[in-house]
Amino acid sequence: MSNAYASVSTKAPEIPWNKHFRQKKGIADWVTDIVIWAIIALTCFVVIYPLWFVIIASVSDQAKVAAGDVTLIPLGLNFAGYKKVFANTSIWQGYWNTIVYSVLGTALNLAVTLPGAFALSRREFKPRRVMLFLLTFTMYFAGGMIPNYLLYKDLGLLDNMWVFILPGAVSVWNLIIARSFFETSIPEDLHDAAQIDGLSYIGYFFKIVLPLSSAIIAVIGLYYFVGHWNDYFTGLLYVTSAKKQPLQVVLQNILLANKANVFENARNAIENQHIAEQIKYGVIIVSTMPLLVIYPFLQKYFNKGVMIGAVKG
Amino acid sequence: MSQSTTMKTTGDTDQAKPSIGARLARHFQKYWQLWVLVAPTLGFVGLFAYVPMWGLQLAFRDFTPGAGLTGGKFVGLKYFHQYFTAPMFTETIINTVRVSLGTLVLGFIFPIILALLINQIGSKGVKGFVQTLTYMPHFISIVVVVSLINIFLSPDSGLIGRFIGDSSMLDNPNLFAPIYWISEVWQHCGWNAIIYLAALSSVDLSLYEAAKMDGAGRLQLIRYVDLPTIMPTCVILLIMNMGSVLSVGFEKVFLMQNTMNLPASEVISTYTYKLGLLGYQYSYGTAIGLFNTLVNFAFLLLANFIASRASETSIF
Question: Which segments cross the bilayer (chain A) (predicted)?
């Protein structure tokens, strides 16, 4: 590498006027290029392979999967696992619960967070400093597992579907991201103009600010939705009825379940186990796909959202 | 009303300040709509964050079923003493620190490397594709990530596990923390690289040109232009993460736990869950949780202090 570095540096002063000089690559740069591309390709492979494996394993002959023959493409196409997954009522119940909790939860999240963030973004609103301090404090200091549990118990939230929706109504982190967005991305001139037109704060927020905020609504909406969709903790700690459990808890129960007991239709032990394995793969795919399909469409907003959060955090 | 007179002398408006009541009335008349907009936020945070904080006094009291959140007889530091002298005390602390410190260090280094590499990609389309791909694991639930770990480490059919031995790698206490760290990096590396990529996009292009004129190759550009650009971001994130030295995600450790790896995997939060919630020792569990929160808070204050000192000294 030091050789090539020397060759570049000796050439450089000779032809500074040559416009092709800038495109010129030394051997070290070629090697660097190849190494960089190799590492990026390897990273992509490592990231994507586990999911790819689950996809191909979910539609392969389980005897071949168990033998380790299935590595890159599905072998012996077999959709029995998916048939079982789609026929399983507890999975559908969990799926439906998760959709209800995620949609209602995200709707409440946005309905509470956005107006709150807007009010806290108004500089003339003096009490906002104290409010922001009290809100931020909760990010670092919390009652913890047991006081939360006892509170939910007192409020009648135990084994109640609202425990998935109400306690997490505001994430202070998302609130701060949204507030920063309102402060930096909505021109103050608009507020002056709105005042001249006689718009109140509420009118200004709904008629002018919200229509300009689709980027931040998309970002924090997705953050909240993903949080609800992947929530396992709440179901584990606070909910006991199987009928109310969200997808993640049902999923975990299936993944842990005693292989022989779950699905009684299979004829013998090995086939039974194979079916159980294939159901695992299938249910992982079925539960994960919705998010993996949604998020690339919102990706263009991420950089902005993360950046705003980081600047203010 | 002495307050209002001092306000009058220091006030910057020409009009005399009316009484506090009148000023409050004026404030609400002007801003009542903002209060309405922020009220739900304050209500939810007050109820679900501050009421449990009020309930922390349970750590110093015996739990009596009728008394609810705030507990019964005051017992002082009894439950803290119980934890500090418990055989599990050192074990849970060491396990927590081991799991979180490794996550902190690896989770700090790898996103930086990945961001520097992705930044080297010239084509916008390829860059976007690689980013989309590497973000993906961030959206997968912990339940699924842990099941992936189990699938790949399974001793008979797992693509990694079958080369290792007859028992699952997850059963080995020595491997528990490394498996946790690596899976964390796998899941969050791409996502955490976003912030560095955003910082890198602000590099002044003339810096590259100037460096190239001086004969810098690709590696030198990374070393002398890219790295210094993101260094302030790196330092801030590292210091901020120091505040979580004594906290690990409960869910993931809990899901990765089994009876074999328990000596390495019993962390403070899982111990609190088992003893406090499952074992109905509410006061004891609250005390452990409070201790954990206080240590984290102390680390955060320390990190904040260092951060403010560092940013003062690093200003040119």
Answer: 34-55, 99-120, 132-150, 162-182, 202-226, 279-298
